[in-house]
Design goal:
The complex is a heterodimer of chains A (382) and B (853). With 382 residues, chain A is α+β, with helices and mostly antiparallel strands. Chain A is built from 16 helices and 13 strands. In chain A, the strands form four sheets. Chain A has a four-stranded antiparallel sheet with strand order 10-11-3-12. A four-stranded antiparallel sheet of chain A has the order 5-6-8-7. The longest helix of chain A has 18 residues. In chain A, 41% of the residues are buried. The model of chain A has no long low-confidence stretch (mean pLDDT 82). With 853 residues, chain B is α+β, with helices and mostly antiparallel strands. In chain B, strand 23 and strand 24 form a beta hairpin. The chains are: A alpha+beta (382), B alpha+beta (853). Strand 13 of chain A pairs antiparallel with strand 1 of chain B.
Chain lengths: 382, 853
């Protein structure tokens, strides 16, 4: 019975608030008359709290970030252990997020493992080693050039090879993939690389010797450090560097919870709605980390503006501000001359629909009390 | 007053390039001579200061429109250039076009022309503004041989700043221009230009418009000498060189001389447009200072757009130092009398107020409350002086307006920079006070982020009914108690008023007479409440008397004891920051929600005043002796410190002997550091607890911290016992010499004191090295603030610029300026944060209300 009552108010009261009511009365015995009373009161309270049309909501959002921005610390690092795994938080991180930079200064992933595997620390360490990007130099003891045979000789560290879980076949395959046409041979625990015998092969050998050190033997490209940690009652892997697309392909990885802190990457891999959510989550992380309190609605609005066109636009002259319809609005932000010149080339027309042009022209702005207009029925109209 | 209303509204602005024809059409004069003035100091006809270009001298009349100074906005002139010159701002687009067209027939060098589909051009759509597609040209493959006339093409290159080359041959602007003239409009659209607004040949200047003198006024120095504007200087150069070029051409001078002069003309015109180009040496004054020409006038923060157009100056404003006055209301501002006699409010004379208005005129500008000006119905302003007074009194009749002095109760807008949020500019009612500073209630410091160490604030007086109504309805202080940032109350009791109410509700008692006197002082006159007062009145009863009679409230104090108000009586609990303070003053919230903002602010003001008055009558102070500790505690604290130092010693020796086990992911050194920091923080907290243990409720410093007014127990521990570890970048101090922080320590010393552990308390005093470590962290935080402020300021500017056009529409969607929907309903539920309770509708409260009925 009470269910139908809730249904009646669906659409009148937002679901979020209805859920709150449902949760709050859950443990109480309330008859329908009282429930109706409650819902009516909630409805009234909601009507009172509703936002007014014309509200300059964008400015309020900007203020809500701008004012606490002055209280944020500049260099705030979070130490997740090793120095390489620091994460930028605080104001610089917020700026980076709103700029929609191509990649974060401290890329980082939190890899969750499927339920089957996430209890066993041994298994986790194994998965972590599999994910970590391993370069040849990390599992080798010595790189040398055999001038007589015109080849590169690499002495491998057998113990490390075992740790990483690789073998000669994998190594030779990786090398052959990076260097076309070379021959890879195994001599005890030494790998010998022979380039194609041509005139310049001696120079080629030197080149190979240096380049082969960075050949990725195993792991996911871009993941430079891994650190398995215990979170609540499961093990997760935190890593420096991101590569969402490839990590999600790994069988043991729980692809429903694994996240990266690179909003652009998330957008690319999982789509624009995920990008929006990533902006919200990452901003919240910064704001909460600083002990600040900004209402979620402001963060949502900003994320919505940034993603409204289907791709992530930064809050900068190249992003939202640079893509405005109005010439004067763009010119009043940054690089005014450029915008005026380009506008003149195509005869751009500024319809004066936004705020700043009307400020420039001393006219009422189309916000708040400047918004209502009288509509007069004109009698003589063709 | 008809001129006050907007009769016309600009509906759109179109940008384009001026054609020579248009320049001639809009020009009033042809400029022919570089001379400015004749021997009498009168502007020369056909000179750069020609009176037909507008007037800058008072008294003179414009020869074009007949307007006087300020009536005439000025008129353009033009000069005919002897040889065409490239407009430097269009050099890149000219280069691009030149590369894409045939040198013989001027057609675009491609037949592979993408059809501009009907979607792009709809001829019958009248509203359609031809918008050429950017970048079409770059997608075209350009032929080496013209597909239209089979002429062979050469490489075109741009030699900065303004020379275009075809192979090794220099292309003269004349040549370029003639090529462009042949370019058909349709081909131009392919390049990305709209022929009706911008033909490429217009970007090569043959006729240069001369800006009116009104935008380049000359200044008369004290010596009587005239100093011309930078633009006039530059134009003078242009006219002079142009004339010489003409003369040389006519005299048949050698080609090389003509070309040199041509280049010089190009240089002058280039710097006239932009004097900060990278390959062009800036034109300078005789003093060596670069001239400020057109581009410099427009761009940057001090330029026309951001300085004059996006930000405007106003009249009827005042600025002075602020000082606190807890006796005035939250929504009042104390205005000094001398300011009140300068700032005025226009008041319309009617049949009903004409006598009062006459009084204002009689008092004049020197007596308060008087008036400064009379405005006649035709808009003429008359100053009130002793001479004009009589006559003005006589002619005064309904329809006139009087600019009378500011008076108590007038609407004013009060602001403190930086205006970071909307609570930085609020509406107050004027209260005229003696003195020279603005007075504001200290409770309103928080929204303005003001203090009284010399801060200045601005006051604005709205001048018409519409502005006053908007200010009063939208900006009044009581409408901004709840911040839209997160929905908590930004205003509340602070400092003394919290302590006062805390003491009052915790332990104070008054005699009946004193209690009533106290309440009457605060402004509470409730005989039905006073009736119930016994011989001795508890503080709770007094506090309760402020509250409305039907007010119910349940909250919790900072120490988690319940605070219960029933029917306006404080039944149990005490008042502190958690109930009446900022941010989470639950009692204030409840008042605000149950009644309205006017009652809310009134009760808040009474609470504020009550708290202060209680302290005033009972006395409250803090002293160094507040931080005295009994011997026993001091000994215990000393031993705590020693223990910690020993523990660190042990950790260090473990580390040295390699016994310390590293935590996973850390090096041994890092583990040691983390452990030491943990031990030292532990000891600081332990000391804090020791201090708290002995603290008694009579100690004023403790009262301040436990009421939440100022300070916390850690501050007290720092004063009484131990300042604690100083941290830089989240670690102990490591900077300084190799392996040591200061030269007085041995290298490799890992002890607490060698890395910034301050063992002493502030009272006992710091050792020199401890002081030094304290100064290090102090400097670090200063640096942080200095570096952060501009960064966050820029972030704010960008945010507000990007988001300023968003608004909630009548259909509840959030849209931007071109009506693109950003959100279908604001914040997924349409709730205004500043009308919510910490971002939520208080469902629990509603349920409780209904079920308890």
């Amino acid at each position: 019975m009470s269910k139908t009552l809730f249904l009646e108010y669906k659409g009148i009261i937002p679901d979020k608030i209805l859920d709150d009511v449902r949760e709050a009365i859950n443990d109480k015995r309330i008859d329908n008359v009282k429930l109706k009373q409650i819902l009516d009161d909630v409805k009234n309270a909601y009507e009172r709290a509703k936002i007014s049309p014309g509200e300059a909501i964008g400015t309020i959002t900007a203020e809500s970030f701008g004012e606490p921005g002055t209280q944020m610390t500049l260099d705030y690092f979070h130490f997740a252990g090793v120095a390489e795994m620091n994460v930028t938080l605080g104001l610089p991180r917020l700026i980076e997020l709103f700029d929609a930079r191509q990649s974060p200064t401290t890329p980082r992933m939190e890899i969750y493992i499927k339920n089957k595997f996430n209890k066993d620390p041994k298994k986790i360490r194994q998965i972590a080693a599999k994910i970590k990007e391993t370069k040849l130099r990390e599992i080798s003891l010595e790189f040398s050039i055999n001038l007589a045979k015109i080849s590169v000789e690499i002495k491998l560290d057998t113990k490390k090879i075992k740790d990483v879980g690789t073998n000669f076949d994998i190594i030779s395959k990786a090398i052959m993939q990076d260097f076309k046409g070379v021959q890879v041979l195994k001599e005890a625990d030494t790998v010998v690389i022979k380039p194609k015998p041509t005139e310049s092969s001696l120079r080629e050998v030197f080149r190979i010797k240096e380049k082969v050190k960075d050949t990725i033997i195993s792991g996911v490209k871009g993941i430079t450090h891994v650190l398995p940690i215990k979170k609540e009652n499961e093990f997760i892997i935190i890593c420096a560097g991101t590569n969402l697309a490839d990590v999600l392909k790994i069988e043991e990885v729980d692809d429903t919870r694994t996240v990266s802190n690179d909003i652009m990457e998330i957008q690319k891999v999982l789509g624009i709605e995920s990008g929006r959510q990533a902006i919200i989550n990452e901003s919240l992380k910064v704001i909460e980390g600083q002990g600040l309190d900004i209402d979620i609605r402001h963060i949502m609005l900003l994320a919505d503006v940034m993603t409204a066109t289907g791709r992530i636009r930064g809050v900068s002259r190249g992003g939202i501000s640079g893509e405005k319809e109005s010439v004067l609005a763009r010119a009043s932000f940054e690089t005014p001359i450029k915008h005026l010149i380009n506008a003149s080339l195509v005869g751009e027309r500024d319809e004066l629909n936004s705020v700043i042009e009307n400020v420039i022209l001393n006219q009422p702005v189309p916000l708040g009390t400047g918004l209502p207009q009288l509509v007069v029925k004109s009698e003589k109209k063709k | 007053m008809a001129e006050e209303y907007i009769s016309k509204r600009v509906s759109a602005i179109t940008f384009g390039v001026l054609s020579p024809k248009n320049i001639k059409k809009m020009a009033a004069v042809k400029i022919v001579t570089p001379e400015l003035y004749d021997k009498e100091g009168y502007p020369v006809d056909g000179g750069l200061m020609d009176v037909r270009l507008g007037v800058i001298d008072p008294g003179l009349r414009c020869k074009t429109c007949g307007g006087k100074l300020k009536e005439c906005i000025g008129h353009f002139g033009y000069i005919e250039l002897a040889r065409p010159v490239i407009h430097i701002k269009y050099i890149n687009i000219l280069y691009k076009i030149l590369k894409s067209i045939c040198r013989e027939c001027s057609r675009v060098l491609s037949t592979d022309v993408p059809k501009i589909s009907g979607e792009d051009i709809e001829e019958d759509d009248e509203e359609y503004v031809a918008k050429p597609k950017k970048g079409v040209i770059s997608s075209l493959k350009l032929a080496k041989v013209c597909p239209h006339c089979s002429a062979k093409q050469f490489d075109i290159s741009l030699e900065k700043p303004s020379t275009l080359m075809e192979g090794d041959r220099r292309l003269s602007p004349i040549e370029i221009r003639s090529r462009f003239e042949k370019l058909p409009d349709d081909d131009l659209r392919l390049i990305g230009l709209d022929a009706s607004y911008a033909r490429p040949e217009w970007m090569i200047i043959t006729i240069l418009p001369i800006p009116p003198v009104t935008i380049r006024p000359s200044i008369t120095l004290e010596t009587g000498e005239r100093s011309e504007d930078d633009l006039t200087h530059k134009l003078g150069d242009i006219v002079r060189i142009n004339q010489r070029l003409f003369e040389n051409i006519n005299a048949g001078a050698p080609q090389i001389i003509i070309e040199d002069l041509w280049d010089l003309l190009q240089y002058h015109i280039t710097t006239f447009f932009d004097n900060s180009l990278s390959q062009v040496p800036p034109a300078r004054h005789r003093s060596g200072q670069p001239l400020k020409t057109l581009t410099e006038r427009i761009k940057s923060k001090e330029g026309r757009i951001r300085h004059n157009l996006a930000g405007k100056r106003v009249n009827f404003a005042a600025r002075t130092v602020i000082s606190p006055d807890p006796m005035i209301k939250f929504n009042e501002v104390g205005v000094p009398l001398i300011i009140a006699m300068e700032l005025t409010v226009p008041e319309r004379v009617t049949e009903w107020n004409i006598n009062r208005m006459k009084e204002y005129i009689k008092k004049g500008p020197t007596n308060y409350p008087g008036s400064n000006y009379v405005i006649r119905p035709d808009g003429k302003k008359k100053k009130i002086t002793d001479e004009t007074k009589e006559q003005l009194l006589e002619e005064l009749q309904p329809g006139y307006k009087i600019e009378r002095h500011l008076m108590d109760g007038d609407i004013a807008i009060f602001n403190r920079q930086p205006s970071l949020h909307r609570m930085s500019i609020m509406c107050h009612r004027v209260k005229i006070l003696p003195g020279r500073s603005f007075r504001l209630n200290p409770g309103t410091c928080t929204p303005y982020n003001a203090d009284f160490d010399g801060d200045e604030m601005n006051l604005h007086i709205p001048q018409n009914e519409e502005a006053r109504a908007e200010a009063e309805i939208l900006m009044l202080v009581q409408n901004h108690i709840i911040t839209p940032k997160n929905g908590v109350n930004i205003m509340g009791c602070i400092d003394d008023s919290i302590v006062g109410n805390y003491l009052l509700t915790k332990k104070l008692e008054f005699s009946r007479e004193d209690a009533i006197s106290l309440l009457l002082y605060v402004g509470v006159d409730k005989p039905n409440r006073f009736k119930h007062f016994k011989e001795i009145v508890s503080g709770r009863e007094i506090f309760g008397a402020i509250l409305p009679d039907d007010f119910d409230f349940i909250g919790i104090a900072r120490d988690e004891t319940p605070v219960i108000v029933k029917n306006g009586i404080l039944i149990s609990g005490h008042i502190d920051k958690a109930t009446i303070g900022e941010e989470n003053g639950s009692l204030i919230r409840s008042l605000y929600a149950n009644y309205n903002e006017n009652i809310g602010i009134d009760i808040l003001y009474k609470m504020f005043k009550l708290g202060i008055e209680v302290l005033l009558r009972k006395g409250f102070t803090t002293a160094i002796s507040d931080t005295d500790l009994p011997d026993k505690t001091r000994n215990r604290i000393e031993s705590l410190k020693l223990e910690a130092e020993e523990e660190v010693q042990k950790l260090t020796s473990d580390f040295r002997s390699g016994k310390l086990e590293a935590t996973p992911g850390f090096s041994e050194k890092d583990t040691l550091e983390a452990e030491i920091v943990r031990v030292l923080n532990k000891v600081r907290n332990a000391i804090g607890n020791e201090v708290l243990g002995i603290s008694d409720e009579r100690n004023p410093t403790i009262i301040m911290s436990s009421s939440g007014a100022k300070g916390n127990i850690l501050n007290l521990a720092q004063m009484a016992a131990c300042v604690g570890q100083q941290a830089l970048r989240g670690r102990r101090i490591q900077k300084g010499y190799n392996d040591r922080t200061l030269s007085m320590f041995t290298a490799g010393d890992l002890s607490p004191k060698a890395h910034g552990f301050i063992r002493n308390g502030f009272k006992s005093g710091l050792n020199p090295y401890e002081f030094f470590f304290g100064a290090m962290t102090g400097r670090d935080s200063l640096m942080d603030v200095a570096l952060r402020t501009p960064k966050s300021g820029y972030l704010y500017r960008r945010l507000s610029n990007a988001l300023q056009d968003l608004r909630v529409e009548y259909d509840n969607t959030v849209r931007d300026a071109n009506k693109t929907i950003v959100q279908f309903i604001y914040g997924e539920d349409g709730v205004d944060v500043s009308k919510s309770e910490h971002g939520k509708i208080n469902v629990a409260k509603i349920i409780k209300e209904v079920t308890s009925k």
